Fold each of these.
Amino acid sequence: MTSVEAVTSALEKLGIKPSAMVEHDAAMTVEAGLQAIEGKCPGVFVKNLVVRDKKAGLFLLSVRHDAKVDMKALPQLLGVSGGNFRMADSALMTEKLGVAQGSVTPLAVMNDTEGAVRLVLDKTLVADGATVALHPCTNTRTCSISGAELLAFVNSHGHEPLLADFAAAAAGNGNGGGGGGGGAAKPKEGGKPKEGGKAKAAGGGGPTKGAGKKENASEKGIEYTKAGNLPKWYEQVIVKSEMIEFYDISGCYILRPWSFSIWEAIKDFLDAKIKTIGVTNCYFPMFVSEAKLQAEKDHIEDFAPEVAWVTKSGDGDLNEPIAIRPTSETIMYPAFRSWIHSHRDLPIKLNQWCNVVRWEFKHPTPFLRTREFLWQEGHTAHATKEEADVEVLQILEFYAAVYEELLAVPVIKGRKTEKEKFAGGDYTTTVEAFIPAAGRAIQGATSHGLGQNFGKMFRIEFEGADGKKAIPWQNSWGLTTRTLGVMVMVHGDDKGLVLPPRVAPLQAVIVPITMKDVDEGAQLKTCGEIAAALREAGVRVHVDDRSNYNPGWKYSYWELKGVPLRLELGPKDMAKQQIRVVRRDTNDKEDVPLSILPQKAALLLVQMQHEMLARARQTRDSYVAQALTWEDFMAKIGAGNLVLTPYCNEKEFEELVKKRSKEEALAAAGEEAEDDRAAISLAVKTLCIPYEAPPLPDGTPCFISGKPAVCWTLWGRSY
């Protein structure tokens, strides 16, 4: 069998270095392969089938992992007459391609020196800008290379591939190939990809461009546009700006100092807010027994599929499995029972800053949907419902302030419907943000009124001032590191991060512009004096005096990291006792006298913070629409809007909206079903019943049921 080393050596001879090489357990199926590389290996995972026909011969079909291959359509697709294709047996596969079953890959054609196997590539794998993830002849590794590099590799081993449109064939249009003859298309003469690996795709129209890929983009910068390819743009921004690093456990990520310092700013801001209403911090264990976790079945039902369990200690099994907290109600409330006996013990207002594990099965997205995340969770108990209700809304205002005052992200405050509320609670309030580039909402944070439900379940009682036994009214509320992802997606641009000044780890960077015959010592001394004056004015500033990088490189580096102000100091600036100030958000430039720089910089930072929120709010508002009928509703949802409708607020019709919206979107896309593991869905859901909404005239019909509407409700597709 071919070794990984032999494959990497063959790649290196062509100057090809995989952008990722992931080691994992043996993946015998496509599903296992996808799970093994989730969040670790970029590119489209390649599915491979080796098929044979007595007359046509042996074919290796390399397609997208989600492509459908119709054996009956293969003769026309491949341009062969007749044809009765069957899967080849594993012995023949090993004999001709030198790989075992489960390890097949288009790279295996390096072993087919006799040309016994004809390679067929799904044309989308080699489209401009495509990246593929495939096995290097063993199913315990997966590597990522570009589609152009794949073409170069197979051509160098004497295999000119056929490029076929499997998607078109699956859609039933008959001719999934090109070239006029009904078969697959061949690359141009010579078999070499031209101009950086471009190959002519089937269909006669040339290759489809890599979605959102910038022309001649540097690998050190952001290679995709936000509008053209939001997922790739987002991944590159958070990695190349040094916010996160991928980890070898899927769904878990390393928060580097640049992102963690932003989380610390959020933590410090919110911590100060909650302490003004008497909340104190504490810490409870992260482990919870199975008995306690199951104590409130209605509450834990929604979390059950995501609970991670510890079952072993060393080589031995534990007497009983221990869960890692998905949330802490069942951990904290038995303690509340021990502490609360009299009305004098109330209120209890506790908060903890900690981590949580929810073993998501959907595709993870850093910050937005992860298996481990950081958060704060507040848990309080009160003598009266009125007191508890007041706190729910106080906390909601604090969360809105985190988004709007710190992160410059506008949010919509409202109450969740019965269907969307926190399991086991009386009601849930929420702040909802919006990602214009995706046309999707995202839940920002929630504050729950739990009522007396948990008190009854955990038998928490106190003696009131009247001497009667009573059950306390409880709340819980939480905000997570999702905040960072929302900030990135709302404000970032094609150059990288754009950080709001209040949370930026550095608010200004000074870049000295060195030239020949310039006294660098004097220049750096001036930079140091400027930095000291700015720090005195409360500006977080850094002097980039690295001599191994030129000013242009430094500009791009700090732009990518989103630093609000760039201060450029050249010889002419020194002579004029001024400095050039460049805003990251607008790229506006201004020459500022050094004598007033501290005041000017501080003013600009305040102005930037205000203007970033105003721009984001104006953009968000342009995506909020009203609809009174189903047809109008779906048209506006399809345009990427949040939609406000009159609604009867009945659960069955909420389910109907989700079902119909998903079915209609799939039908419009020509799809039969949605991947259950997808992080985002085509279904439309309620986001909230907004606290600020227009008057609802009496008799207004619900847009879906026709019954009298009782409220305006905000709907949208959501992360």
Amino acid sequence: FFFGMMPMHMYQTDPMVVPPPHKVGCWVVPLGLLVGVAVGVALTTWASAESLYVASAVRTAPALPLQATPLRRLEDPNPLYRLRSGPPPAKPQAKHPGVGPKGPRQTAEDVGSSHHWGFAALLGMSMSALWLALRHPQAAMAEAERELSAVYTPTAPQKLALFAATGAKVIKPKIRGFICTTAHPTGAAAKVQKEIQYVKANPPAAAGPKKVLIIGASTGYGLSTRIATTFGYGASTIGCFFERPSERNKPASAGWYNSVAFEKAAHAAGLYATSINGDAFSDEIKAQTVERIKQDLGQVDLVVYSLASPVRVDPVDNVMYRSVLKPIGQSFENRTLLTDKDQVSTVKLEPASEQEIQDTVKVMGGEDWERWINALSAGGVLAEGAKTVAYSYIGPEMTWPVYWSGTIGQAKKDVEGTASRITAAGACTAYTAVAKAVVTQASSAIPVVPLYITLLFKVMKEKGTHEGCIEQMVRMLGTRLYPAEGGVVTDDEGRIRVDDWEMAADVQEAVAAKWNTIETETLDQDSDYAGYQADFLELFGFGLEGVDYEQPVEVDLPMPSFAPQGESRRAALLGMLAPAAALLGPGAPADAESYVKSLGLRGQTNVDVAGYQRTASGLQILEARLGEGEKVVQVGDRVELELTGRLAGKNGLYFFNTNQTGEPVEYTVGDPNMIAGFTEGLLGMKEKGIRRLVVPEGLGYPDPLEFPGPIPDPVDYAFREEVKSVVNTNSRDCTLVFDVKVVKIRRR
């Protein structure tokens, strides 16, 4: 009947599309009825077959260690279809020949009856569950778990496996460009252990640091320095980093897993190791670190600065600055390697503006390093004779236009100037340590450099002089910063050089000889591209020998040194069935089309909306309510939010809505996986404050669209496709519109 009446309804709705019923013919209703019956029979048959399969499987599964709760006849008060809480009345097992003293067994009667009783139970479950879900959607899941528990009554570990997500999953690398969006905890532990073994096999010849602070301690040279000082010199270490723990059963960042593995190894060896997770650029993390040193170590004798971040929020003006990788003065064109396509290609870069140069120096220059030393000195936690080191890179002339002579080079030169100022201030002696080219997340993003590294690796491995991060740091500490004889070894300009083997004349000549002749077809033959790829995967815990990557692993690993914070991680359940009222209250437009029109967007991402404040990045903000209290959102804060998100390119379609659940969501502000516009829009908000954020394409999702992080992640497949259809299509407006209310700010 439904199928038959559909054309009549459509005709009334849109007569221009569907012909009137009398032109369709009187056969429509009977045919629709037949189709409906056929579909119903098919679904009923399938459901019955499924119930037979499930019932038979339960009865014949001797390995299922459940308490002996027999299947009941339909006349029993079965909570599955009566929706009555509480355990069912006990029945003697003798009445049920399918369950006996020797365990479950199947009989011919059971197979025949399973079909009937299973279908009846399924029908009752479906109708009652539908009624419950429609009337009380938030109670439906809790009720279902209670009733299932009443039937099966599993033991506690089995209950966890049946009704709760344990976090164990098989993790595979997911690579987007020069970034891997997943990380493997077991692989990360194996990588850390490999570096520890190298340090133990190459002990230092002289005494070294005993109390060390590493700023940027979770990956690359920072992590290797922490491992080398801990297991080479027995040092106590404090590591600062900004890494993402596991949330909503997603893997944590590689740096998080590296630090977990390091702390476990250090504690097992009886060595002090603690960590601070937050934005190292902020004054709050500096103050927290000073207090930790006072409480636990008293003073430190070595401070290592190894931060690598594309953005920085200046704590003085609270402005987010962004770095760029560009030449200065003129455009630059050279060969490069497209690692996502395994292709040797040509890249052309336009020169940076003066503002971009200044912003890059602001992010990657020495200003924050100096602020750290000033904070440590003011707190009285720098030991007499303390040293501080910041890592740098110079590289060969072929990379200079995009590196040493480009925007990054200007920042590195500023770091060298900062070292002179720190030393002159007298609190400690500062050095820059120039390391060799290695595969890191940062180096993978620099044009020209990946191709250079693949050629360099092949030449240096053939000569037996190749080093990775841990080999570099062991040599830097043991032969340069703390040599067996004499003082710190530097070049004429005061730099510590451990790039000497890379910059050897014979090595650079061999690399230059292949630079202009290598092609995509000869990539594997003329370079060590395989080694580059292996090193890249190892950054994220993949490709390590002895790790079974087909086995599920626990993704939610706590940091050993972190005290339990007692904060529940409430997953953001997405409202996918119907839009709820916007956070801004009764004044919000009721329908989606009016909502988008009210913003003044009309399908364009760069139009200024009346009444909104437009930032330098293009984000537009409407301050609907200022909020209360003195505390404002800063990078590193943990915030509870009420949040809705809409797609302007889909007439304001909701893809994220906490109003559906009544539960706020929690995020760490500045998480590298947050979309940039959302992070910027949160800064400066107070508790109970409300903003509407109009996020343009450049500050929203990447293209091609992936969902690596917590803001926002429409996990429902259909809605993922809706978002992708907008963000990955140039012809549609990719603007995202968020209504955000800050419920609580937690300072870390």
